[in-house]
Amino acid sequence: MALALGACSSAPVRTGQAGGSVTSPNFDERRPGYVILHHTSTDTMARAIRILTDPATRVSAHYVIGRDGRQVQLVDERSRAWHAGDSRWGGNADINSSSIGIELDNSGSEPFAEPQIRTLLALLSELRERYRIPAANYLGHGDVAPGRKVDPSRYFPWKLLAEQGFGLWCEAPATAVPQGFDATMALQAFGYDVSDPIAAAAAFRRRFRNEERIGALDDSERAVLACLLEMKRR
Question: Cα separation of 223 and 227, whole Å?
Fold first, then answer.
């Protein structure tokens, strides 16, 4: 069971100006449309929690999951956690306001532990049921902040998640890349910020090829991108 450490519902904010207050029933709570996955770059879950709950750091997440599969909730899902920073995906430049942030306790240079991934999959299933988040909207911090962030690392099992409906995945297709295919435009159409095309290509490669390498996409990678773009359009 998740241990709630903070972000309980607070009293409503009221104006200080004179006047009355009438509550309208015509509103909704924040409904997240994305899940953003991170790794903590720490050696222990306790250290990760200290960082994520320290007012001086001004960083947080909704959940953190330890290597042993223990799950801790830090921020109410209805609230805006500070986990994505200066990030964008497609036309969305305020990822924090529209997402659930999940931190996985991992150094960034190690495989992700099986108990941790099992807990993550169970949590993602709950979030999908609660918010009807589309498969294409399960993303990594490196996807929404290419060139600035690289988490979760190339060791993260994106293919396994996609098999459960959390994210998209294509193996290198046998068919050739469509004639006139522009990789930068395709990356942008898929959702990446291409203000730095090389950084966007590196983020794509880390996510979909499990490689940490700089450079333009090769023919095989461009074929995967074309396949993914077609999947997203369906």
Answer: 6
